[in-house]
Amino acid sequence: MRVVSALMPAQRRRHETWRWIGLGLVVAGVLLSVVGTGAVGVLAVVPIVTGGALFTVSSVRWWDLAVDTARSFQADQAVRSPQLEDRAIVSVAAVSSARRRAVVLGATLSVLALGAGVAGSVLPVLGSTQADGASPAAVDAPAPLSTATPTTAPARGAHGSPVGPFAVADGTVQIGQVDDEEAWSAVCGAVSSDSGCSAWAVVAANECDLDVTIGFADTQHGATTRTELRSVRVRPGTPVFVASVGDELWSGIESGACRSQPAVDEHVATWFATDDPEAAPEECWELGCIGFDVLPSRDCPQADVQFAVYDDYGGLGNPHDLVVPLELHEGTPVTAWASGTESFEGDAALTRVSCR
How far apart are CA 54 and CA 156, in angstroms? Predict the structure, then answer.
């Protein structure tokens, strides 16, 4: 083909120029159909059709000229060198075959480009038209996750008598009370000491910092005696278990809200793995615990200490997060324990200490 191209007359350059112009129009039309909106996107079909026609027609004419040039050269060679006729430098049959393949390929690419342009411009317009005609109930977005969900008469549960699940905002965060004995031990075993403890499980479809208000009472339906506000970082795919310690028998979730920037101080302490594992609570001998020495930079009556736990003790899932309360006094080290790491490969890491 290089020989044929070199032998072709100068008018081939005109066909080549129109072919490049047509290809440029096709590419521009496809790009416009992708990035354009509304009528602009629909009009992108025009340069695709025009460019495709220019590309196809100029390609056909270029190859017609190539075939004519090959025939002319072969005839001239036969006259000048009859002894080389069987070893022709240029084969008309080969050029004709190449012409057919090139024309079919060019036409196919033009059709594909047109299809891409239609899909990128017309179909989105039709889709938006259908959406505009939908009923308001079908297109209204759910309430944002950051909306608080107050409860005027919270249901209360106790260890052995769990309360039903509590949904935050649009239901993408669910909070339930843990009642399984082994799971409860994995959450509360290392923090309950002489007080009672309620274990709460949180699962979330979105990542956020969750503020949870837990109310306590001496009876299931009596007046709330106190509340505590807990800060928990949640994310999809990783359940979070919260230990809530108190002398009251009954407790329940009163409200919950997801916040992108909660009003908590996450710079209240530094921490490092403890060098005295023998100081773990007695319950840790069965549960398995990993301790971290926390050095507070200020006082905090109840900080939230969050661990990432890599063990499935109690069926909590591997991995899962554990949040325990911890009282902090400035400059006084205190050890926080992540329980439920009893397996040989169990591990935990302290990821967050926050205080209001």
Answer: 76
Q: Are strands 240-246 and 289-296 parallel, antiparallel or unpaired?
A: unpaired
- Helix residue ranges per DSSP H, 152-296: 181-188, 284-287
pTM above 0.70, yes or no: no
- DSSP state, residue 312: -
C-alpha span between 208 and 176 (Å, rounded): 18
CA distances from 163 to 199, 245, 350 (A): 11, 17, 29
The Cα–Cα gap between 290 and 309 comes to 9
The alpha-helical segments, DSSP class H, found in 81-180 are 92-132, 136-139
Cα 279 to Cα 104, 274, 289, 335, distances in angstroms = 81, 9, 11, 9
Pair of tokens at residue 227: 């509340």
State the pLDDT confidence band at 22, using cuts at 50, 70 and 90: confident
Selection from 308, 351, 353 nearest residue 326 by Cα? 353
Task: Write the Ramachandran bin of 252: left for phi over 0, alpha for psi from -120 to 50, otherwise beta.
Answer: beta
Single-letter residue type at 163: V
For residue 282, name the pLDDT band (cuts at 50, 70, 90).
Answer: confident
Region 184-192: what's the mean pLDDT?
85
Name the β-bridge partners of 339: 289
What is the side-by-side order of every strand in the sheet holding 240-246? Answer: 166-168, 173-177, 196-204, 240-246, 320-328, 300-310, 347-354
Calculate ∠ Cα 344-203-206, nearest 5°. Answer: 120
Dihedrals phi, psi of 302, to nearest 5 degrees: -150, 100
Q: 306 - beta bridge partners?
A: 323, 352
